[in-house]
UniProtKB/TrEMBL annotation:
This is Luciferin 4-monooxygenase. One of its GO terms (molecular function) is ATP binding. One of its GO terms (biological process) is bioluminescence. It comes from Ignelater luminosus (Cucubano). Coiled coil: none annotated. It catalyses: firefly D-luciferin + ATP + O2 = firefly oxyluciferin + hnu + AMP + CO2 + diphosphate. The lineage of its organism: Eukaryota, Metazoa, Ecdysozoa, Arthropoda, Hexapoda.
Length: 541
């Protein structure tokens, strides 16, 4: 930690062990050194596998496909597909030649897809049977964007004329890995990925991640004090590949050899069966899965003793929830990470030897943080609550084709202003309170929805919840809780209101009441989409 007078804290100054240069070249070298028969990916549904030599060869052939389509360094390739065995093949091929990979949610609506593709204007769109209809419609609407379209794997009955990437891979001749040289790039300037921001407060923006950003992230992810992943580890891959958390875990199985068993959807019995069958050692999950581990009676019916490490990202966890899962899955350590697409994933980590509940851990190597008071225009000291800001080699280059918003979010000292409210303690542990724009203003008090949600989730009848502020003439805003009940459990609205009132200060009571709903709207990473809850409130009036 830097001198307190500076009101800045820093992560460890460890040497970066990842070689300089393209991360594509680094991945290529890792695969060339690994056992060719090592199983890298397993599709749980079909049982099909992808071994190391196949991934290596397919990724090399992908470069020939791209070059044949006229794609060169700096061009953009969009992938609009769900998780699959060959998803990372075009990603790797693009990284080898210096193209930029734009990852998109295959469940995007036509409007969302049109917005995202209008930002990047890709040369090639790789889609799936799930997304092809919307992709074709958007491609037509966005003319004269001259994007080529291919399906990633399976042909579509309704679009039989569209060739698949898999077919193209099969006609490209064998490429000798030892004679292949990836494109030379500027690691500080050249983009590797464009990821769409979560859109929790507005339209998503294109987050431009450089090769150097990824190199910095890999440096700590591979470190034994953080993840310590090896080719003896197995994970169940439920995270969407298009999300920054999913990108980081893809990098781990490519760089470190961890086996990944792919699931496309969360189905409780299948998820638990996959852990038991493949003896998963590490799980990378979002808060809804932790909630499932804590609350579902199904968990007790499966042998989860192989699980040693559960890493949670996407949104902060309450102390009770983290302790509950730690006590339930006996052999596992439950650890939180915190980060954003804009910081190339995790910028804090609960390390094995330093887990402080309620915190999201300490800063990772080569990262600096300050807590900013937007009114006083100054950084704050230990224990003072303000906006969390980060600076270092993992901070994005900027928002693609949006210099104005980039300047709004990255200050003149190079700090990215996260929009999250938090503080740090004397040991450098960081605590996330809530989103700056989501705090409820009750009679001058700031009420964090996340604090109320953590409390409400301790009620045995509550399966999930989301809290928003609604207008009130006297107070300005008052908290309203949307709640999903546990199956076949009887609980009334007043029961929840009273439960909260007995356990928290008066300004944080649920003066807006409780409404029971079927599902809490969330992003792919588990963040609550409060704007959807606010829309629900206004349409119900």
């Amino acid at each position: 930690m830097l001198p307190e007078s500076a009101n800045i804290i820093s992560g460890p100054k460890e040497d970066i062990s990842i070689p300089e240069g393209s991360v594509g070249k680094y991945f290529l070298d890792c695969m060339k050194k690994r056992d060719p028969k090592h199983v890298t990916l397993v599709d749980f549904t079909t049982g099909n596998t992808l071994i190391n030599q196949q991934l290596l060869q397919y990724s090399l052939r992908a470069t020939r496909i791209f070059q044949g389509l006229g794609i060169k360094k700096g061009d953009i390739i969009s992938i609009v597909a769900e998780n699959s065995l060959k998803y990372c093949v075009p990603e790797l091929g693009a990284l080898y030649i210096g193209a930029v990979v734009h990852l998109l949610n295959p469940h995007y609506s036509i409007g969302e897809l049109k917005h995202a593709l209008s930002i990047t204007k890709p040369k090639l769109i790789i889609c799936s049977e799930l997304s092809v209809k919307n992709v074709m419609q958007v491609h037509k609407d966005l003319q004269p964007i001259n994007s080529k379209i291919v399906l990633l794997e399976n042909k579509s009955e309704n679009y039989v004329d569209i060739i698949t990437f898999e077919d193209l891979l099969n006609v490209v001749p064998h490429i000798d890995p030892d004679s292949f040289e990836p494109e030379e790039i500027n690691t500080l300037e050249d983009g590797a990925f464009i990821l769409m921001s979560s859109g929790t407060t507005g339209l998503p923006k294109g987050v431009l991640i450089t090769h150097d950003n990824l190199r910095a992230a890999l440096n700590y992810l591979c470190h034994e004090n953080y993840l310590g992943v090896s080719d003896e580890d197995t994970t169940i891959f439920l995270l969407p590949f298009f999300h920054i958390f999913g990108v980081l875990i893809q990098m781990l199985f490519i760089a470190c050899g961890m086996k990944a068993v792919i699931l496309n959807k969360f189905k409780p019995d299948i998820f638990l069966t996959s852990i038991e069958k493949y003896k998963a050692t590490k799980l990378f999950v979002v808060p809804p899965i932790i909630l499932f581990f804590a609350k579902s009676p199904l968990v007790d019916d499966y042998n989860l003793s192989s699980v040693k490490d559960i890493v949670v990202g996407g949104a902060p966890l309450g102390k009770d929830l983290q302790e509950n899962v730690t006590n339930r899955i006996k052999n596992a350590t439950v650890r939180q990470i915190y980060g954003l697409s804009e910081t190339c994933g995790a910028c804090t980590f609960q390390t094995y030897n330093k887990i402080k509940l309620n915190s999201v851990g300490v800063l990772v190597p080569h990262l600096y943080a300050k807590v900013w008071d937007p009114q006083l225009k100054q950084s704050l000291g230990v224990g003072k609550v303000g906006e969390l800001c980060f600076k270092g080699s993992m901070v994005m280059k900027g928002y693609y084709r949006n210099m104005n918003f980039t300047k709004e979010c990255i200050d003149e000292d190079g700090y990215y202003h996260s929009g999250d409210i938090g503080y740090y303690d004397e040991d450098g542990n960081i605590y996330v309170v809530d989103r700056l724009k989501e705090l409820i203003k009750y009679k001058g008090f700031q009420v964090p929805p996340a604090e109320l949600e953590a409390l409400i989730l301790t009620h045995p009848a509550v399966k999930d919840c989301g809290v928003i502020g609604i207008p009130d003439e006297r107070a300005g805003e008052i908290p309203l809780a949307y709640i999903v009940k546990q199956n076949e459990v009887q609980v009334g609205e007043q029961d929840i209101v009273d439960y909260v009132a007995e356990r928290i200060s008066v300004q944080k009571h649920l003066y807006g009441g409780v409404k029971f709903i079927e599902e809490i709207p969330k992003t792919a990473s588990g963040k609550i989409l409060r704007r959807k809850l606010r829309e629900r409130f206004w349409t119900s009036l």
